[in-house]
Amino acid sequence: MHTKRLNNLGRIVIPKEILEIFQLHEGDLVDITHNDRQIIVEPHRQRYVCAVTGKVADEAIRIGEAWISKEGLRQIVKYMSDE
């Protein structure tokens, strides 16, 4: 465990050892969330809203201006094969 002090702007320094474990470098993005008892800092993962399902997905392909998830693609293929 590492104990750090917040500075006057609410900043903390993440120890180098932890940065190396998660392969984080200067300029990388992190996601900061919380629950009732914890502040959670995680490496940023790009998330997409599927234009077919409307659900958030970690993986998607871009077709024109739309992002389509694997589930969305399956729905399109099923729809096209049913006709």
TrEMBL record:
Keywords: DNA-binding. The keyword DNA-binding applies. GO terms for molecular function: DNA binding. It comes from the Bacteria. Residues 4-49 form the SpoVT-AbrB domain. The lineage of its organism: Bacteria, Bacillati, Bacillota, Bacilli, Bacillales. The keyword DNA-binding applies. This is AbrB/MazE/SpoVT family DNA-binding domain-containing protein. It holds the Pfam family MazE_antitoxin. InterPro entries: SpoVT-AbrB_dom, SpoVT-AbrB_sf.
